[in-house]
Amino acid sequence: MTQTLQVDLGTRSYPIQIGAGLIDEPELFSSRIAGRQVMVITNETIAPLFLERLERTLGGFEVTRIVLPDGEEFKNLEMWSRIMDGLLNRRFARDCTLVALGGGVIGDITGFAAACYQRGVAYIQVPTTLLAQVDSSVGGKTGVNHALGKNMIGAFHQPRAVIADTDTLSSLPDRELSAGIAEVVKYGLIRDPELFAWLETYIGRLRARDTDALVYAIERSCRNKAEVVAADELEAGQRALLNLGHTFGHAIETGVGYGTWLHGEAVGAGMCMAADLSHRLGWLDAASVKRTGSLIAAAGLPDRAPADIGRERFHKLMAVDKKVLDGRLRLVLLKDIGNALITADFDPAKLDEMLAAVG
Asked: Is 225 an active-site residue?
């Protein structure tokens, strides 16, 4: 059974479709493809598994493929340029459609290429990791990394559709599955305490890839994401709550080198850091800090940052975060499980104290 949610953005609204075997359903794609030319962008890991199936589904169109190396370290301008070269060499018109077949890296870089090519063309997200299905494929954030900071080059560009085929998760390594669960935990922490409590009870079923548990987690996460994006598309306000753990997590990813820690692993540790700081500020009770750390660990994620980054390095890395405004670092912190806030009004000594405890 396919579940459909809607991201409500007026004339740019689009469906999120969740279910098994969706890659094989031509009508899901044909209704969202603008012209005749389609470029499928994927990576070397996903291509042998799903690319030919998707190309058969798109058989009525002129399909070109671009296969990129796999890994966060390849989410860069060089790979973006490879997509641009393919579009220009094959004379793709403005009514073309790009299709992102892969995880968050492929989705982000494809979306950014679609945002830039001829000042904006259509694209469809076909996420194949749990992290991409519950988070990064929804909401139109696109971009690439720079050596000095993660996601510092990009654009907001909404897809025409998100088609989340749960069958693709069967080939996902356990580590990648856990990385995706981090983003599900995030929704529970920032706005959905019922989801958090459900995770505490059913985390084992989710890690065991129970179909019902996966569909529930994906649908509930996408519903949360769609509501936030519809209310604040360009992250002028409350959408920034979705960055819980990400300021610390991005610093971890950059500090240890892209690809060393998975994004979800870094976010998991980052959420524990945010909970710790919230407690030190007197906002979050000790029991909630413990629940957060316990669930992160139960998900198979690190609940501590790597000690070798150190306090000073953390400060330097966070200084180039997108959430720095007027020289002030804004953080997403917690008042309670299910109640988050965005603030620059925190005691910097407490931040130093927390970072020192990590290092």
From this structure: yes
